[in-house]
Design goal:
Layout: E1 7-12, H1 36-48, E2 53-58, H2 62-69, E3 74-77, H3 86-96, E4 102-106, E5 109-111, E6 125-129, E7 139-142, E8 148-152, E9 160-168, H4 173-182, H5 189-200, E10 205-208, E11 214-216, H6 220-231
Parallel strand pairs: 1-2, 1-4, 2-3, 6-10
Antiparallel strand pairs: 4-9, 5-11, 6-9, 7-8, 7-9
Helix pairs in contact: 3-4, 3-5, 4-5
């Protein structure tokens, strides 16, 4: 896929209460002084350039997120952010994004330079880390053809963790939208991927990014890990 004009969505509407900050989690500062959100935007622009169409889904304290991303992104408002989960935030963003494939990131993912450039933006995929499998993380299992079969926090014997960076190809986008629409308000977007696989045979690759540093910040310990990763570069 040509990277020119790629669609990128950052999911940043949630409350993020586990980190215990009085502001949205994507605005937590890293060791280099940048917020998680600024870190993501800098990497997106550095990889895909100014032609990338970037949308940030906002909700909780949206004015802070919008101020932090001003000039670098369009905004999608999830007005019931406090009643819904990532399935509905992603649904809103996919319905509004320009035609084509869409790369989407959870708004709390910190990653090292080079990761985005290594992603194959052609077929639908979930980026995964096979180096560790945390109990509280979204895990996955593969089918006999090496494609994702199960994807949730409840997966047992997971092959690795999903890191919160994903891509839906243009040809699969309508399928994913249908399943996101059918999700319960409290479902994560991974539920829609699972049902699309099970019911419509959606083919989802697992792209291993274990060679790159990547931390999804849920709690203080994760933020410390992200800072250590940044300092060790």
């Amino acid at each position: 896929m040509n990277n020119a004009g790629i669609n990128v969505v950052i999911l940043a509407a949630g409350l993020g209460t586990r980190l215990g900050r009085p502001y949205p989690k994507p605005l937590a500062r890293l060791a280099d002084g940048r917020s998680i959100l600024r870190h993501q935007l800098d990497h997106v622009r550095g990889t895909y350039g100014q032609d990338a169409h970037v949308s940030v889904v906002v909700g909780y304290k949206l004015e802070l997120i919008m101020e932090a991303a001003a000039g670098d992104a369009a905004f999608v408002y999830n007005e019931i952010y406090d009643q819904t989960n990532t399935s509905k935030s992603l649904l809103k963003a996919l319905r509004l994004a320009p035609p084509g494939g869409v790369l989407w990131l959870n708004g709390d993912v910190v990653f090292t330079p080079g990761l985005l450039a290594a992603l194959p933006l052609a077929d639908t995929f979930v980026a995964v880390n096979t180096a560790r499998v945390g109990d509280e993380e979204v895990k996955y299992r593969l089918d006999g053809d090496g494609r994702v079969k199960e994807l949730s926090k409840e997966v047992e014997g997971g092959a690795g963790e999903a890191v919160g960076i994903n891509f839906v190809a243009a040809r699969d986008r309508a399928t994913l939208v249908r399943h996101l629409d059918r999700c319960a308000d409290t479902d994560y977007f991974e539920r829609a991927i699972e049902t699309a696989i099970a019911e419509e045979g959606l083919e989802v690759a697992a792209v291993d990014i274990s060679a790159y540093g990547c931390v999804e910040v849920d709690c203080e310990e994760d933020l410390v890990r992200a800072d250590l990763m940044e300092r060790s570069r």
